[in-house]
Write a structure and sequence with these properties.
By secondary structure, the chain is of the alpha+beta class. It is built from six helices and 17 strands. The chain is elongated, with a radius of gyration of 27 Å.
Amino acid sequence: MKRKHFLTLGLAVLVFLLALFAVLLENSGAAGHGRLRVQEEIVAVCLTGTEGVQVSIEKDEEDRWLLNGEFMANELAVREMRSALRNLEVRRPVPFSEMQAITGQLDETGAGVEVFGKGHWIPLPGDRGLFPRQRKLKHFVVGEDSHDGGGSFLRVHGENDPLEAYVPGVGGGLKKVFNPEERIWRDPVVIDLEPSEIIRVRAVFSAFSGFSAFSAGEEGLASEQAAPGESHASDHAGREGFVLEQSDPGVYHLFDHFDHTGAEIDISRLRSERLHRYLNAFSGLYYERL
C-alpha cells in the first residue's frame, strides 16, 4: 500500500514539474529581442486598452472568429491583424536619448497585445501532448509610430527597453492594427439577404414590448430580434402581425396574422415597388445603422 501511495505521489510530482517546465519555456520564448513574428497557429488574441478594457478575438470550434465570445468578428480586421503578427519584425532599437519618453508613452497610451496558440500542459514530442490548453505565444505593448512612420514603438512583456517594430512593405501603423476598441472588431453585418434568398418573413407587433421577429433564407436560415427581457417562446396572445411568404420564385402570399392562422390577403393590387423595397431592406443591414 505504501509503495502504491509513493508511486502515485511521485507521478503527481512529475506531472507538476512537466507542467511547470512548459510554462517556464513559454515565458522564456515570449521575451527577447529576436524576431517578433508568430509562426504558430493563432487561436486567440486579447487586446487591452489604457483603461483596462479588454477585447477578446477567439476562434471557436467551427473555425469562426468571435468577438468576446458573443458576436461574429470583423473578418477583414482579423485578417489584417494575423498578417501583421506573421510578418512583424524588429526595425531597430530605440535610441538612448528617446528611451525615457517612449517608455512613458507606452505606459500611458500603449495597447496590450496577448497572442495565444494551441498547447498542452504536458508537451510530448512533435505537436502532441496531454491536457490541451491555450499557450501564450507573444505578449507586448504597442504604441505610436516613429517620427518617419516607418515603424511603431513596441515593448515586449518582461523587457525594460522598448524597440521599433514594423511589417516589411507596410511600415508602422501597428497601434491601428491592434486597436482595442470593440467597434473595430465587430462584424458590422447583422443580415445581408437578397430578395431571392428570402422564403418567409414573420413580423409580430405589440404596443407594450415592441417585439419583432423574422425568419428568412434557405434551408432554415433564421434570425430573430426581441425587445429586452422578451422571450422568443413567450405567449403571443393579443398581438398582431403578418407573414409574408414566397411559394415560388417571385410569387408572394401575405397572411394577416403572424402564425398563419389568419386569412390570406390579396396583394395583387399592391404596387410591386413597395414589396421590392420592403424585401430589399434585408440586404446590407449593419448594426451601426440600427
